[in-house]
């Protein structure tokens, strides 16, 4: 985005963000703050995988979000029942940000061993995956293609970013503005149906 471009806005009124366990999860609070600042009327719901707890706290996200916030565990005291309907609150889409390789593979396999995965397996809402895979090979491509066979799943466009481990530049999908643009396109398509 250049200095003269406006930040993207979310075309809907409510969304759900699922945070999975990657070092990139430590940057999610900044993006939630940015989203709330640039889209003050949008309701932001969040689920946080147990692996993401190493990088970000549910309490911190709860202070930044204005919707439902819960740990992605069957025993979480803050778990609401909305996931059973394939959404939280009145969410119009789900963004997985960041989406680890493990999360992509579990979704591809149809696994529903946590509330958020169950929600994403049964939802008809658009799902946008902001993938942060450590490498690209035939296996990762295979599972991504399986997910793309679902009509409601898309991936955020990749951007060049700095790897946390060796500081080299590499393409990745940790692109929240791009994920919002894909979500907006999916909402626009859904409205035309």
Keywords:
single chain; Flavin_trans-like; 32% helix; alpha/beta; CypD-like; 6 helices; Rossmann fold; catalytic activity; six-stranded parallel beta sheet; CypD family RiPP peptide-cysteine decarboxylase; 193 residues; two-stranded antiparallel sheet
Give a written overview of the molecule.
- The protein is of the alpha/beta class.
- It has one domain (20-192): Flavin prenyltransferase-like (Rossmann fold, 3-Layer(aba) Sandwich).
- The protein has helices at 28-38, 58-64, 101-108, 115-122, 138-148, 176-192, and strands at 14-19, 43-48, 69-71, 94-99, 127-131, 153-155, 159-162, 169-172.
- The strands form two sheets. A six-stranded parallel beta sheet has the order 3-2-1-4-5-6, sandwiched between helices. A two-stranded antiparallel ribbon has the order 7-8.
- Strand 1, helix 1 and strand 2 form a beta-alpha-beta unit.
- The longest helix is centred in the C-terminal third of the chain and has 17 residues, at 176-192.
